[in-house]
């Protein structure tokens, strides 16, 4: 029992430190976060206290109001912290991959399945919605990467639907902060076993490509890599 208490005591400072770091990070992008949280907490508590005095139970309603004020402040803090995080990630290479890694259960994400020298990149996510190619970078350049990856997917898993999304703020693109919601709203077309089978086929093909023997030293003149070979990562 003592060990459990010690572990819990050791974990609490870590949680508090994480909350403090999150607050500092949020405050850099949202200067009014402190005032907003205070206003939400005080107004929630004030409403319940007023109701408590009206019905003759200020103590009970005050305790309930205090708990709900803390809950409301926590919800508002979480949303504004998430918005601040997305604001700082916007436009950064690999931001979409970070969102996909935290999309939730049921999805398998493979970052940077295709990339070019300009750091335009395509990530792949597999779930019950099928295969989703998520691209980030210049929309004109990244389209060719997506098209090439789609052709490869059609050769490997022709029976699985392949969708594509381009992360950005332009027309027809998906904003980074809406990427997770957009992915979760996609219609489900595969069963659990089909998702597993698709991941196995893609994993096997990836292992085959990575283990493909290549000649050492300079490439002979006129020699070309086979189509579908490994891309720069």
Question: How do the helices and strands line up, and which of them pair or pack?
Answer:
Elements: H1 2-29, H2 33-55, H3 58-89, H4 95-101, E1 108-115, E2 121-127, E3 130-136, H5 139-156, E4 162-167, H6 179-185, H7 192-210
Parallel strand pairs: 3-4
Antiparallel strand pairs: 1-2, 2-3
Helix pairs in contact: 1-3, 2-3
Pfam families: DUF4191
Protein name: DUF4191 domain-containing protein
Transmembrane segments: 33-53, 59-78
Describe this structure in words.
The chain crosses the membrane at residues 33-53, 59-78. InterPro entries: DUF4191 (IPR025445). Residues 210-233 are annotated as: Disordered. With 233 residues, the chain is of the alpha+beta class. The chain folds into two domains: 15-89, no CATH class; 95-211, no CATH class. Strand 2 (121-127) and strand 3 form a beta hairpin. The longest helix has 32 residues, at 58-89. A four-stranded mixed beta sheet has the order 1-2-3-4, sandwiched between helices. Helix content is 58%, strand content 12%. It has helices spanning 2-29, 33-55, 58-89, 95-101, 139-156, 179-185, 192-210, and strands at residues 108-115, 121-127, 130-136, 162-167. The radius of gyration is 25 Å and the shape is elongated.
Brief overview:
This is DUF4191 domain-containing protein. InterPro entries: DUF4191. The protein is α+β, with helices and mostly antiparallel strands and 233 residues long.
Count the helices. How many?
7
Unreliable segments of 5+ consecutive residues: 6-11, 207-233
Q: Distance between the terminal alpha carbons, to the nearest Å?
A: 50 Å
What structural class do the secondary elements suggest?
A: alpha+beta
Number of strands: 4
Radius of gyration from the alpha-carbon trace, in angstroms: 25 Å
Helix-strand string? HHHHEEEHEHH
Most strands sheet: 4 strands, mixed
Strand content: 5-15%
Helix content: 55-70%
Number of domains: 2
Protein name: DUF4191 domain-containing protein
Keywords: Membrane, Transmembrane, Transmembrane helix
Organism: Streptomyces dysideae
InterPro entries: DUF4191
């Amino acid at each position: 029992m003592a060990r459990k208490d010690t572990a819990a005591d050791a974990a609490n400072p870590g949680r508090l430190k994480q909350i403090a770091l999150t607050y500092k990070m949020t405050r850099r992008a949202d200067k009014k976060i402190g005032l907003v949280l205070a206003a939400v907490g005080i107004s929630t508590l004030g409403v319940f206290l007023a109701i408590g005095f009206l019905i003759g139970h200020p103590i009970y309603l005050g305790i309930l109001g205090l708990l709900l004020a803390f809950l409301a402040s926590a919800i508002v803090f979480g949303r504004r912290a998430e918005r601040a995080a997305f604001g700082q990630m916007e436009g950064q290479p690999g931001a979409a991959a970070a969102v996909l890694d935290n999309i939730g259960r049921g999805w398998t994400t493979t970052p940077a399945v295709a990339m070019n020298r300009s750091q335009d990149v395509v990530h792949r996510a597999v779930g019950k919605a099928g295969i989703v190619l998520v691209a980030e970078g210049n929309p004109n350049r990244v389209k060719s990467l997506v098209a090439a990856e789609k052709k490869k997917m059609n050769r490997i898993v022709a029976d699985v639907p392949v969708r594509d999304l381009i992360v950005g703020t332009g027309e027809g693109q998906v904003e980074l902060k809406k990427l997770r919601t957009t992915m979760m709203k996609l219609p489900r077309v595969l069963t659990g076993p089909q998702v597993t089978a698709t991941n196995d086929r893609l994993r096997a093909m990836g292992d085959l490509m990575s283990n493909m023997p290549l000649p050492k030293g300079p490439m002979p003149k006129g020699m070309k890599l086979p189509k579908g070979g490994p891309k720069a990562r």
